[in-house]
Amino acid sequence: MKTILIIIGIILLIVICVQSYYTYKLSKQVQRLSASKAITTTESQPLSSFNWQTDKWNPFEEFQKLQNEMNSIFGQFHSHLNNTPSTIFKGFNFHPTIDLKEEKDRFIVKADIPGADESSINVTVEDQQLKISAKTNKKHEEHSGGVLRSERFIGQFERIITLPSAVNAAKMTTEYKNGVLTVNLPKS
Questions:
Q1: What's the rounded mean pLDDT across residues 14-42?
Q2: Domain boundaries, the chain
Q3: How far apart are alpha carbons 139 and 90 in whole angstroms?
Q4: Is 181 exposed, middle or buried (CB count within 10 Å of its CB: 0-12, 13-18, 19+)?
């Protein structure tokens, strides 16, 4: 639990640093722009004729870059949370790692689905797309000196993989052993 809080603190510190950097960069560009383009309201050049468009700097573009950067940071943070077996993150979707191997006469797909009940795993093939879905319910209990510690990860996922070529779905076989789902897909 302490390591999770430390990781969250580090990520928040990084986010604040990135935000501060972009705010500093934005303020410097505003200062540069205001110094190079002094606005005067004389009769020869009224304020309404001032060209507010500039090729050098666009504040909306800077804010869009900042938004994309923040989305990237939080996206990476969210993907790390998905693999954390703590009750704090209960309900997040789980994204298993998948290997796709091509042999002469078939494709072999292996998916890591630890803690899934075999009856909750569903595998289908339609239009060269393999769809794997399952529910996971992983428990971890420790008994130490009269203290019980229990952690659970409950989640569900759905992965769709586009296969390189057509397969014979009727001859597909699956095997689930030691938390690894193996799908054999004979080529058409």
A1: 73
A2: 2-36+56-82, 98-186
A3: 12
A4: buried
In angstroms, the CA 150 to CA 138 distance is 11
Distance (Å, rounded) from C-alpha 158 to C-alpha 137?
15
CATH assignment of 98-186, given 2.60.40.790, 2.102.10.10, 3.30.1050.10, 3.40.630.30? 2.60.40.790
State pLDDT tens for residues 92-115.
Answer: 455 678 899 999 999 999 998 877
Q: Distance between CA atoms of 130 and 182, rounded to whole angstroms?
A: 12
CA dist 150 and 141 (Å) reads 4
Of 94, 108, 104, 96, whose CA–CA distance to 163 is shortest?
Answer: 108
Can you give the three-state secondary structure of 126-158, one letter per residue? ECCEEEEEEEEEEEEEEEECCEEEEEEEEEEEE
The CA distance from 121 to 119, in Å, is 6
What is the Cα–Cα distance from 21 to 87, expressed in whole angstroms? 34
Please say whether the beta carbons of 183 and 167 come within 8 A.
no
Residue 79 burial (CB count, 10 A): 11
